[in-house]
Amino acid sequence: MDDPPLQKIAISGPTLASLIQRFSTSPSAIHGLLYGHVTDLPATLSDDAAVEASPTLLATVTAFLSSPDPHLSAAAVPTHSAPFLGWFSARRRSPLRPSMREFSLTTSLSSQSQSPNPKPSPFIFLLLASPPSDPSHIHTHEYRAFQFCGGRFEPRSLDVVNIGPAFRGHYGAFSPSSPLPPLRYGPPRGSPMSDDGEERLGRLKQAAKDQRKLDACADGFDVGRLSRMMGSEAKSYTEGLEELYQKMLLKIENLTCLVEKTSAMVLEQLMWSAVTPDVVMSAKIAEKTHCQFDPSGKLTFGNFVDKRLESLAEALVE
């Protein structure tokens, strides 16, 4: 009995991201098992009786398990909370189509997984590959999903279930974290003349504290301008926001240059520490006696030593 056809295959975003990350960090090709569940989609009713009923099954991949064994076996599938759906293969610099080895292994896994189950279930195969002409500085990953049905691979659409406007509700509990100081959405209420001295002093201290926090991210950007970029009036301060980003990038660039100069100084000190003591002593003697080394390594005396020799020669002649 043939496996029931699938309308499409879905995979959760974290599972796909983790699978691609495992593939990109692996030194060679990887493969493993896929887990998930199969659900029925609501049928689309139609008054046209001649129209054939379309598949209403959806296979959702929720987890995977990489296996070091190149010869996968369904009999050795570890126990998992989700049912076994199929397997995946990820290989580098190869076309995005199943190979003869993958066809043979899929046939074996499909027959082994269906033998203990009286009711057949869909068997899927996920193929990941990098382009054959992919340069080393660009990471490109392609993937394609298949259902193995009737002894052949049938392509199926692959949906990532938590990317897009339909899944924004999944991130309702997200709380952003930023090094920028928390600011109010507008100027403080009340007139400065009506405030007492302690309240005005407290606001000035808070403003100075916020300014120091902001200077740690972007030098020379006023904290008052940042407060005006929040709230309903933020649309009119686009240029100021771009300037803030430029100052933050400049801060990072200055830090990078400082680290580069410090690394060069440390390297120079390490090179000097590797010089032999004899060379250092020769350089010190040459400095004290006004001597210098020529390009051939021969020691030559300076003007001061030449004059002393000349005066000594004249005294001997007399």
TrEMBL record:
Name the record gives this protein: Uncharacterized protein
InterPro entries membership: FAM175, FAM175_plant
Cellular component terms (Gene Ontology): nucleus
GO function terms (MF aspect): polyubiquitin modification-dependent protein binding
Origin species: Psophocarpus tetragonolobus (Winged bean)
